[in-house]
Amino acid sequence: MSDALIVGADGLARPSWAAGDPLLRDYYDTEWGMPVRDERGVFERLSLEAFQSGLSWATILRKRPAFREAFDGFDPDLVSAYGDRDRQRLMADAGIVRNRRKIDATITNARATIALREQGGLADFVWSFQPAETPRPTAYDQIPTQSAESLAMSKALKKAGFAHVGPTTMFALMEAIGIVDTHLLGSHRRASSGVWPA
């Protein structure tokens, strides 16, 4: 990928991955990196980041409506009750990524999310790993793929019964929900979350 930001016809600077495809551009402009602090929102994004592992984010984003329908809006209470019939239904659903390991992890993680409510809940738990500083990249090769905090979060979530929550996947989650700001300096979205200064 090019290190340069691309200025669109609207005069806004975006990274190359968000400059072409309208779906990715809209996601970048309105959602990626904005704070998500509710249980269902964090559970959904944690689940989708796990499904994304080994695939492109564009693939997951295009399938997100089907994922939401298939997983009852990522309601942890509903997903936690899934049994073998639900697993078979999900494995037969061509609208989502049909990976048994990731489907099982989503059900496992719904149950672990419910258990975490006794300790303040998933959202507070995940946000407790917010670092003291965020990256300030001017090029893609300056953006880390994991951090000490994402490694610690991964270990803590695994201890709490979560699956498919490796440190790289958890760093992607941290980027997606605003815990860190990895927008390139000069992007129109840099510091737009209200969590981090420019």
TrEMBL record:
Its EC number is 3.2.2.20. Keywords: Glycosidase, Hydrolase, Metal-binding, Zinc. GO terms for biological process: base-excision repair. Zn(2+) binds at residue 183. One of its GO terms (molecular function) is metal ion binding. The keyword Cell membrane does not apply. It is an enzyme of class 3 (hydrolase). It comes from the Bacteria. SUPFAM superfamilies: DNA-glycosylase. PANTHER family: DNA-3-METHYLADENINE GLYCOSYLASE 1, DNA-3-METHYLADENINE GLYCOSYLASE I. This is DNA-3-methyladenine glycosylase 1. It comes from Nostocoides australiense Ben110.
